[in-house]
Amino acid sequence: MKILSLAQKEYLNSIIREVADFPKPGILFKDITTLLGDAKAFEFLMEHLYDRYKDKNLDYIVGIESRGFIFGATLANKLGVGFVPARKPNKLPYTTISQKYSLEYGIDELQMHIDAFGNKPGANVLLIDDLIATGGTAKAACEMISKLGANLIELAFIIDIGIGGIQELESYGPIYVVLGD
Ligand code: AMP
């Protein structure tokens, strides 16, 4: 696999903007728009992910709304596999399955189309999002991928903020964090 050099990792870390107290006090928001706006950084990040997954026999990539769509759809297109969005409630027009999950205050929900994997049992799926925090959002997506009969090959994130999300998700499959250790 094409390994990211230390210099490339440092560059990616430096290009992701940190915004304090967004969207609420106490949150240090990792803003990946500054990475997306840097053509060189976005390109070598996607090349790295392409290289990691090109021989994994994937059928679909599931991206979590909304930043997971950007990385997921770009990677799916490079790999020549389908892209499936896991969306916030009442956005998908056809019949959906839903999974609720807990937030710090309250409950949220993700939905996927019932035929997202073409009714093909055992489709090989990669789940991707920009960042893992508590792991609750990705867990909801994993539950739906499982209910739809697909085979979760790996969970991929660009950033882990180190608050226990990885441990929450370990039972669903291997986890890869680009800017991990
Ligand atoms: P969680 O379900 O707690 O793992 O939260 C992950 C989701 O919330 C991802 O879709 C992230 O994009 C978003 N998120 C959570 N915390 C942050 C943060 N500090 N900076 C940017 N996005 C975040």
Detailed description of the structure:
Homodimer. The protein is of the alpha/beta class and 181 residues long. It has one domain: 3-Layer(aba) Sandwich (Rossmann fold), CATH 3.40.50. Helices cover 33% and strands 30% of the residues. The chain is built from six helices and nine strands; from the N terminus they run αββααβαββββαβαβ. Strands 4-3-7-8-9 form a five-stranded parallel β-sheet, sandwiched between helices. The protein has a two-stranded antiparallel ribbon with strand order 1-2. The longest helix is centred in the N-terminal third of the chain and has 15 residues, at 39-53. It is globular, with a radius of gyration of 16 Å. The two termini are 16 Å apart. Bound molecules: adenosine monophosphate. Adenosine monophosphate (AMP) is lined by residues 27-30, 64, 67, 129-137, 161, 165.
Question: Care to give the gist of this entry?
Answer:
This protein has helices spanning 6-15, 33-36, 39-53, 67-79, 136-147, 165-169; strands at residues 17-20, 28-31, 60-64, 82-86, 96-102, 107-113, 124-132, 151-160, 175-177. The chain contains six helices and nine strands; from the N terminus they run αββααβαββββαβαβ. The chain has one domain: Rossmann fold (3-Layer(aba) Sandwich), CATH 3.40.50.2020.
